[in-house]
Design a protein that fits this description.
Organism: Sphingopyxis witflariensis
Strand content: 35-45%
CATH topology of the largest domain: 2,3-Dihydroxybiphenyl 1,2-Dioxygenase, domain 1
InterPro entries: Anthracycline_SecMetBiosynth, Glyas_Bleomycin-R_OHBP_Dase, Glyas_Fos-R_dOase_dom, VOC_core
Oligomer: single chain
Number of strands: 16
CATH class of the largest domain: Alpha Beta
Largest sheet: 8 strands, mixed
Protein name: Glyoxalase
Distance between the termini: 45 Å
CATH superfamily of the largest domain: 2,3-Dihydroxybiphenyl 1,2-Dioxygenase, domain 1
Pfam families: Glyoxalase (PF00903)
Number of helices: 5
Order of helices and strands: EHEEEHEHEEEEHEEEEHEEE
């Protein structure tokens, strides 16, 4: 692999897009349209707009058939690959699985896969908009509010997961934080940029999964907004290296989400 994979998109699958729009608008400051665009197959899809006019990701409305098939509200990330079909073959050969077969959309070719431990994510070979050369997505930022700022994998096999992602997506793994009995919190890098961490499954986590931490302008304001808008706080704000604070929550529709930002009070 000549270039390490980037998280180029984030998607909220939800049973209530309007409710999610109200929640994330209050907590993060995003603007999510009140009506979706009917995409392939009539799926309701809405763009998440940042205050600076950029996109933060998308919202996919879970319809009755999806819910009957077992789909549940959650956040999923998209990793860029040069060849979706070749990536699928390589992922399956190393114990991963295909959750949704490769599909061509106007914005690119995508597939939903899972790593050998079962954590799902998308892979995508994007098509840039007309007149725009293929460049770096800005939905992920290490520092900026209204962007995803951290990607955290809780997994049943941290060693196996790190081996898988470093092999298939070109990431590095340097440094870790000792969590005592809970094990090591091991940092992952794309080039020289720290993009997240890999950790063991904690008690109460039934399956391996990625979690995404969205940047907020003030962690205490966000905490108040989560509670005031129907969310459930699962971990209160904790100070993280660098002096900012991170917290975890469940949105009103049941999707797990993290928030990270400064404490201004």
């Amino acid at each position: 692999m000549t270039k390490a994979a980037n998280f180029i998109w984030y998607e909220l699958m939800t049973s209530d897009p309007a409710g999610a729009a109200a929640f994330y608008g209050a907590v993060v400051g995003w603007n999510i349209p009140s009506h979706g665009e009917a995409t392939a197959g009539g799926v309701d899809y809405r763009m998440i707009m940042r205050s600076d006019g950029g996109n933060a990701g998308g919202v996919l409305a879970l319809n009755a058939d999806m819910l009957a098939g077992g789909a549940r509200p959650c956040w999923l990330g998209y990793l860029e690959v040069a060849d979706v079909d070749a990536a699928i073959i390589a992922i399956k050969a190393d114990g991963g699985a295909v959750q949704m077969p490769a599909t061509d959309l106007p914005v690119g070719r995508i597939a939903m896969v899972s790593d050998p431990q079962g954590a799902p994510f998308y892979i995508m070979d994007p098509i840039p908009p007309a007149g725009v050369e293929k460049g770096e997505s800005d939905v992920f930022s290490v520092t900026e509010a209204q962007h995803v700022r951290w990607n955290e994998l809780a997994t049943s096999d941290p060693d196996g997961a790190i081996a898988f992602y470093t092999k298939h997506f070109g990431w590095g793994q340097e440094g870790e934080m000792d969590m005592g009995e809970m094990g090591a919190y091991r940092f992952i890098q794309r080039g020289d940029v720290g993009i997240g961490a890999v950790m063991p499954l904690m008690e109460g986590m039934p399956v391996s999964a990625w979690s995404y931490y969205i940047g907020v302008d003030d962690i205490d304001r966000a905490l108040t907004a989560v509670r005031a808008n129907g969310g459930t706080v699962t971990n209160e704000p904790m100070e993280i290296p660098g002096g900012e604070f991170a917290m975890n929550a469940i949105d009103p529709q049941g999707a797990a989400v993290g928030f990270v930002g400064p404490r201004k009070a």
